[in-house]
Amino acid sequence: MTTRYEGDSELMAEDGETLLNHLMPGAIEDLEQNREVFPRAAVVTADGEIREIRTISAPDDPEVSPQEAFEALCDQIRKGAHRSAGLCFDIHFVREDVDHHSDAVRVYLETRDGAALNVFLPYEHPEGKSVQTG
Which end of the chain is flanked by fewer CB atoms within 10 Å, N or C? Predict the structure, then answer.
């Protein structure tokens, strides 16, 4: 999987594709094996290493949503603890332009220089068949 980012953020250009390519394969594997995407997150450390964040998929506090946990992670990024972070989770959305409901894997990326990017990969998982993305 490749992506192209155009903008002012050098960090997004450097880290965005790396995080996306780290998170998306696990989401597709989740769909194939479990018919759902388990929320997951990863960061690019100040040293440029990718580190998986486990608390997103199994928070200590069941009252904390993956989005709330990720917001806390983004606060750490804004304070300089990491260069970038990405959160991957399952969504259901309606495309109003074609009145179509769809499931999708959503990857939200944010960098410490303030850039943010959402990537959506619509999918179908017909009974007894493999995941079809597009």
Answer: C
